[in-house]
Write a structure and sequence with these properties.
mainly alpha
Length: 108
């Protein structure tokens, strides 16, 4: 009854963002600054984090679109290859009649 437990990229990402957020909050709270400076730091950090997140999401979308296009292209090539192979099989099968003797009229 041994089950292998792993974690997904989503779980890792959530943990990473949570850890970064917690670390930033603790760092700001423990920093020896005035309330006004601390609020400004938090606001700047939130703005930077938002911008970074938007850029990261945009990059992920572009990368996903590239992967999707590549997959569609690959599947298209595979489909053409399968169709070609099926045509070859059909041609070979047409060379023989049901009794198993060669049908010479179609091949010659």
């Amino acid at each position: 009854m041994s089950e292998e437990k792993g974690f997904s990229l989503e779980d890792f990402s959530i943990g990473l963002v949570s850890g970064l957020f917690a670390g930033a909050v603790i760092a700001v709270l423990l920093a020896p600054s005035s309330g006004e400076k601390t609020r400004q730091k938090l606001q700047d950090w939130a703005t930077d984090t938002r911008q970074s997140t938007v850029e990261l999401v945009d990059k992920a979308k572009v990368a996903f679109e590239k992967v999707l296009q590549k997959a569609e292209t690959t599947l298209g090539f595979q489909e053409k290859g399968i169709k070609k192979k099926l045509e070859q099989i059909r041609t070979e099968l047409e060379r023989f009649d049901l009794s198993g003797s060669k049908n010479v009229s179609k091949t010659q």
